[in-house]
Structure formats: structure tokens, C-alpha cells
Design a protein that fits this description.
The complex is a heterodimer. Chain A is α/β, with parallel strands linked by helices. Chain A has a single domain, classed as HybD-like (Rossmann fold). In chain A, 26% of the residues lie in helices and 16% in strands. A five-stranded mixed sheet of chain A has the order 2-1-3-5-4. In chain A, helix 2 crosses helix 7. Chain B is an alpha+beta fold. Chain B contains 15 helices and 17 strands. A four-stranded mixed sheet of chain B has the order 2-1-16-17. A four-stranded mixed sheet of chain B has the order 7-6-5-10. Chain B is globular and about 70 Å long. Classes of the chains: A alpha/beta, B alpha+beta.
Chain lengths: 208, 490
């Protein structure tokens, strides 16, 4: 699936209907007994490694194309839209970039309680995920019961560019498998990858 | 100050929103700097691309104000291809910009700046957010804001093609007109947005203006800087957020310059400091005198209060009433009180909502004449719009095929970067004496820069998704003596 098609999942419904993930390629409302998961890549597609969340979410989408209980999307805006996009899903999996100084491609796992400390944020649009989800709850909105955040260690998120740095690009397939193995254990290993690699010092992994 | 400061690039890159305060040998403030990462390589990234690509790519620079990037870029293409769009196309573009300004200003008041006032500047940091606003003003306010935002964004979605990164702007016009059904719905939205803006000004009046402590904070000398002000104005010198001439007024309110977008390089220069990647725009014809205010310093400010200061009024009736009320309370124009940016933002919120209605009531907006096809050879173009955070400038040059050979942007927030440093230094000087750092410092610094609504959205996608504010206080040897973090439990 091309990135354009994938991005189209997140086109707003002009009629003001339920946003996101209710497009023609998703499960009909009547078939929602199964837990619905939204995999959401976050970042800018033109800031080198800042796009890694988008790239990984897209690849997870390709990897799990056969699943009709999982939707995929990309968000280059963040902030408040994260709430709007996740409404109606039981589970939200956010894939983003991070800079901690670890090895490129290291996957760090957070949940909302980890982000709670930034709930009062000074950022320009200081509405982080924890804040907006809590707002959604106070408004009785249909927010996901579970939010998982995967942050992938990046190298360069400040230079304009549409390609990942080679160090990070080499780790993408392993990162995809790592996240799939944790979120969808029943799918683990399906793409012939060597399995989850979570230690920051780990080397290697599928190249390319 | 006899102190050598060395900040290597790595340190700088870690400095997302980092503030560094340097003390002298007495432990008093020598200097204060606000640092943000500067994105690199835009010009190289743009070079070699077809100019028509720019309105689709540049919105991706920023996850916060993509709409205004799209429009500034589109206007630069009009200029580049020497084509004047038909009036209906201009109305549609301005409608999109007005919808965006309305939505963004509302968001700032309820989610970002408002908490400082509505919840209270002395409230615990963990309560000063939208949840605190909801707790104080009422649960229903959350739903009201969310619903209004959704309906306003629908205007951008329908006309722009996509809400996040609009694709409607073309050199010479727009790709899509307005249907009668959409017009009817949008008119209702605009009318409700006007009520929403009035409601928001009502909250500001009740919670802020009836509280002497808050009023004193706004009109007091804290963060008061007597700078020049810049903003787009129409032919009557009224605020216009989409088009017009750039007007600059002096710290005493006289017109200092009024120029067409193409002339911006004759008026604006950028100062570079060795300790920061960010550039500090200043008025070329006054000159850079450092991070100081007054008529001899070329530091100018942009964004809501600056736009109101640089104008002779608002072009819509209700906003004009609020404009007059604001200046009456603040003691005349121009107002130099940085915290009054919050108030000016609400005046603009009302203006944008009223303007949406005006544009939709103009029958020209239904015309099919929405594009003039460019026929000239492209050369060079400048496009300026007012973004929520200030005057946004796109400037491109191309070869005769329309391939970009030069691209320069002056983004809105950067226009206030020198003033943000000045406000922070002012707060630091008041709260650090003899090496003792008052614990209120962080709050005061926060309020200073939140008033400007600085946007570094382009650099803040990474988890935890937000820019942690970190204040480091260093002694004269450059050693960190105090480190304050905005994290609640940090």
C-alpha cells in the first residue's frame, strides 16, 4: 500500500461523522466484537528520522494487512488530533521517534502514566497524549482503554530530508517485528525476522 | 561580565526550549538565553524542486500551523508566476485562513495560555492545563471547545482538501469552489463561532479582568517591553490576517514603515548569535543594538498584540468594540504589556469569526471564477500571511522552468525570538538575587513565553511529544548551580 493510500485512512469525514478509521477498508460497525486497535505513526515526513514513526507504522500496516481488527494511520500534527483520531478504538498504539542517546533503532515503551509528568507542558501546543486522553475521559468520549507508546531512538530529527539516516533505516524491519511481537504476539516471527530485540546495546538485525 | 561561555552544538541540540541564565560574580543575572533547535537544510531541501510543490511540502515543516504555511507559499507562487488570483479565490483563501486563526486562537486560550489565568498563575503546575480550566469553568466547556473546533476545522477540510496539509492553493487561485450546501453550513458555523468568541471574551472578562491581581499582572512592568510592532494591514490600516501591506509602528505608535511583501528584505535583517542557531530578525533601518527595547533598538514584535498595535483598528464591528475596550484598560496604544497578548488573541478570535461570516455572505465567494492560469515565466516571489503566531514570510526564486533555486522562510515565532529572550531575562533579574533562585522563577518564565505562544512544533514531534522546559542557572564559571524542569515530578 502506498503512503498516499495509507494517509487517506485519516482523511476527515467532511460530513462530520465519526473521524478516522471508519473508512471503507475498516470493519463494519456491526462486527466490532473483536478488540479494535489503531496503530498510529507520529512525526514529520520531511525531517529525516522524525518520520520513523510514520515509516514503522506503515510497515506494520503492510505486515498486518490481513487483519481487519487493526487500522493504521499517520499523524503529522499531533497534539489534540491524537484524541480525535483515536476515538472509538479499544486500543491505541502510538509509534514515534525519541532522542535519549541510545543506539539508533532502540525501542522504548511508554504508557500514559509515563507521560503524565508532562501533563503540564510548556510546549507550543502543550497538549500531550496524557492530557488529551484525560480530557476525552472527562467529556465521556469513547477514548481507548489502553494506550501503548513506542518510541524509536532516532539519529537526526532536525535536518530536512525525506529519507531516514542509514543507521536507523537498517533497523526498521527489526523494530517492526519487535513492536508486532509485543502488541500482536500471535503474529510474531511471521515475516521471517529474528524476533524482538529490546536491549539498547544490541547490534545487527536485518539490514536494509 | 568577564566570563567565557562556550556552548557546543551538541549541547544546543539537546536544548529543546532550554533556558540558560548566567550569573555574575555577585550571583546576580548577567544574561539569560532562550534556546530552541533550529531546523537545518531547508534551502537545500527546497532547491531543485518544482515551485508548485512548495505549498504541499512547506506545511509539513510544522505540525502546528500547516494552513498558514500553505497559504503563504501559495501567495509566493502568485507572485512568482506574476498572476493575480480572481477575487472569489482570494475570498476562499481568506476564509480558510480565518477558520484556521479562529480554531488556533481558541485552542490557545483554553488549552495553553488560558490556564495561567483561568486556573491561576499561583496554582500548582499540574493543574494549569485544560483539565484545570474545565474543573474551574465547568465540564461543559470542554465539550463546547471540542465541538466548535471540529466544526471550524471542517471548513478547512472541505475547502482545503485535507485538514492537516491543505492542497487547495494553486498559483493564480484555488482548486475548488464552494457549494451552496457548504456555504449554508459554514455560515451557521461562523455565527456560532462569533458566539463562541464572545463567550470566550466573557470568561476573560469575568475571570481575569474582575481580578485585580491579574489585571495588575497584565498592566504592570513585568514583561513590559517598548518595542516596534509589525503586522499586515488593509487599505484603511485595519488588521488583515491574509493580505495587505506590512506595517511597522514605533514604540510610541507612529508609523515607521509600510511596505509590500516584496520589499521585506529592505526592512528586515536577521541577527545571528554564536550561542544559538535561531536567528533574531530586527528592523534593518533601526539596526541591531542587542536584546534591548526602546526606539533605538531594531527589536520588533509580531503576533496578536503586535498586529493590533500596528493597526488603526479592527475591520469588523464587534472586534472593534473589544479593541477599543482593551486599549482603554491598558492605558492607550501601543500597549507594551506582553501578557496582553492573551487579550489581543481573543480580540482576533472574534475578528476571525466575524470575518468568516463576512466572507461567506459575500456572493462573489460562490463564483466559478476561482483561478487565473499563469502564463508568465516564473522568476521570484514573496508571500506573506499572518499566522496565529505572527507574520509568516515565504520567499522563492526559480529558474525559467520554475525549479527552485533559492528558498527563504521567516517563520512567525522567530519574529518574537529576541523579545522572548528579553522577557525571560526580565523575569530572571527579578527573581534571582545574590545567587538565590526564587522558586517562582519557573512560573514567571513560563508565563513570559506562553504569552507569545511560541511555536516550535516542527521540532517537537518526538516523544514525549512535548518540549520540556528546562532552566539552567550557571555561575560565572559556567557550572550549573540550579536546574529547574517543568516536569511536574521532574
Amino acid at each position: 500500500m502506498s503512503s498516499d493510500e495509507r494517509a487517506g485512512v485519516f482523511s476527515w469525514d467532511a460530513a462530520g461523522g465519526p473521524p478516522f478509521g471508519r473508512g471503507p477498508d475498516t470493519v463494519p460497525a456491526g462486527a466490532r466484537e473483536a478488540m479494535k486497535t489503531l496503530i498510529l505513526g507520529v512525526g514529520s515526513s520531511i525531517l529525516t528520522d522524525d518520520s520513523v514513526g510514520l515509516v514503522v507504522a506503515r510497515k506494520i500496516g503492510e505486515r498486518l494487512a490481513h487483519r481487519d481488527d487493526v487500522d493504521f494511520g499517520e499523524n503529522e500534527e499531533a497534539g489534540f488530533t491524537l484524541l480525535e483520531e483515536s476515538l472509538g478504538y479499544d486500543r491505541l498504539v502510538v509509534v514515534d521517534s525519541i532522542l535519549t542517546g541510545a543506539e539508533p533503532g532502540t525501542v522504548l515503551r511508554y504508557d500514559l502514566s509515563d507521560l503524565g509528568r508532562t501533563i503540564h507542558s510548556n510546549s507550543p501546543h502543550g497538549m500531550n497524549l496524557a492530557t488529551v486522553m484525560e480530557l476525552g475521559r472527562t467529556q465521556d468520549m469513547d477514548v481507548p482503554d489502553e494506550v501503548m507508546i513506542y518510541a524509536i531512538e532516532a539519529v537526526d530529527v532536525l535536518t530536512f530530508g525525506e529519507e531516514l539516516t542509514p543507521e536507523l533505516a537498517a533497523r526498521v524491519d527489526a523494530v517492526v517485528e519487535e513492536i508486532v511481537a509485543e502488541v500482536f504476539p500471535e503474529e510474531a516471527g511471521g515475516a521471517g525476522a529474528s524476533g524482538a530485540v529490546r536491549t539498547s546495546g544490541a547490534e545487527g538485525g536485518p539490514s536494509g | 561580565m568577564g566570563q567565557r561561555i562556550t556552548i557546543d552544538p551538541i549541547t544546543r541540540l539537546e536544548g529543546h526550549g532550554k533556558i540558560e541564565i548566567f550569573l555574575d560574580d555577585k550571583g546576580d543575572v548577567a544574561n539569560a538565553y532562550f534556546q530552541v533547535p533550529e531546523l537545518r537544510g531547508f534551502e537545500k531541501f527546497a532547491e531543485g524542486r518544482m515551485a508548485e510543490e512548495m505549498p504541499r511540502i512547506t506545511p509539513k515543516i510544522c505540525g502546528v500551523c500547516p494552513t498558514t504555511h500553505h497559504l503563504a507559499s501559495t501567495k509566493a507562487l502568485d507572485d512568482l508566476f506574476h498572476v493575480d488570483p480572481p477575487r472569489p479565490a482570494k475570498l476562499i483563501r481568506e476564509l480558510i485562513n480565518s477558520a484556521f486563526l479562529t480554531e488556533d486562537h481558541a485552542l490557545h486560550f483554553y488549552f495553553l495560555g488560558g490556564p495561567d489565568f483561568v486556573v491561576g498563575p499561583d496554582a500548582p503546575a499540574g493543574e494549569r492545563n485544560i483539565l484545570g480550566v474545565v474543573a474551574k469553568v465547568g465540564l461543559e466547556i470542554g465539550g463546547y471547545v471540542i465541538e466548535m473546533r471540529k466544526r471550524i476545522r471542517n471548513i478547512i477540510t472541505v475547502l482545503g482538501g485535507r485538514v492537516i496539509h491543505p492542497v487547495c492553493g494553486l498559483p493564480g487561485g484555488v482548486s475548488k469552489g464552494l457549494t451552496a450546501e457548504d456555504r449554508e453550513e459554514f455560515l451557521k458555523t461562523a455565527e456560532d463561532a462569533i458566539e463562541f468568541a464572545k463567550f470566550s471574551l466573557g470568561i476573560f472578562g469575568d475571570v481575569v479582568l474582575k481580578n485585580d491581581t491579574y489585571v495588575n499582572l497584565i498592566v504592570g512592568d513585568v514583561y513590559k517591553h517598548q518595542t516596534y510592532y509589525m503586522g499586515l494591514v488593509d487599505e484603511n490600516n485595519k488588521v488583515n490576517l491574509y493580505d495587505g501591506d506590512v506595517r511597522v509602528v514605533t514604540p510610541t505608535g507612529e508609523e515607521f514603515a509600510k511596505f509590500k511583501p516584496q520589499a521585506y528584505t529592505e526592512h528586515i535583517a536577521e541577527h545571528v548569535e554564536p550561542w544559538s542557531y535561531i536567528k533574531y530578525p530586527y528592523l534593518k533601518n533601526v539596526g541591531w543594538k542587542g536584546f534591548v527595547d526602546g526606539p533605538d533598538s531594531g527589536v520588533y514584535r509580531v503576533a496578536p498584540l503586535a498586529r493590533l498595535n500596528a493597526s488603526d483598528g479592527m475591520a469588523t464591528p464587534l472586534a472593534q468594540v473589544e479593541y477599543e475596550k482593551m486599549y482603554e484598560t491598558l492605558g492607550g496604544k501601543p500597549a507594551h504589556n506582553t501578557l496582553a497578548y492573551h487579550w489581543a488573541r481573543l480580540v482576533e478570535l472574534l475578528y476571525s469569526a466575524e470575518r468568516m461570516k463576512e466572507l461567506l455572505e459575500d456572493d462573489d465567494i460562490m463564483s466559478d471564477n476561482i483561478r487565473t492560469i499563469p502564463t508568465e515565466t516564473p522568476t521570484e516571489g514573496v508571500g506573506i500571511v499572518e499566522a496565529p503566531r505572527g507574520t509568516l514570510i515565504h520567499h522563492y526564486k526559480t529558474d525559467e522552468r520554475g525549479v527552485i533555486t533559492m528558498a527563504n522562510l521567516i517563520v512567525a515565532t522567530v519574529g518574537n525570538s529576541a523579545a522572548i529572550c528579553m522577557s525571560i531575562e526580565r523575569a530572571a533579574r527579578g527573581l534571582i538575587k545574590g545567587g538565590n533562585v526564587n522558586e517562582g522563577l519557573l512560573n514567571m518564565v513560563e508565563m513570559a513565553f506562553r504569552a507569545y505562544d511560541p511555536c516550535f512544533g516542527c521540532a517537537t514531534h518526538s516523544v514525549p511529544g512535548e518540549m520540556p522546559l528546562v532552566v539552567e542557572v550557571k555561575n560565572q564559571d559556567g557550572e550549573v548551580v540550579e536546574r529547574l524542569s517543568q516536569f511536574v515530578d521532574g
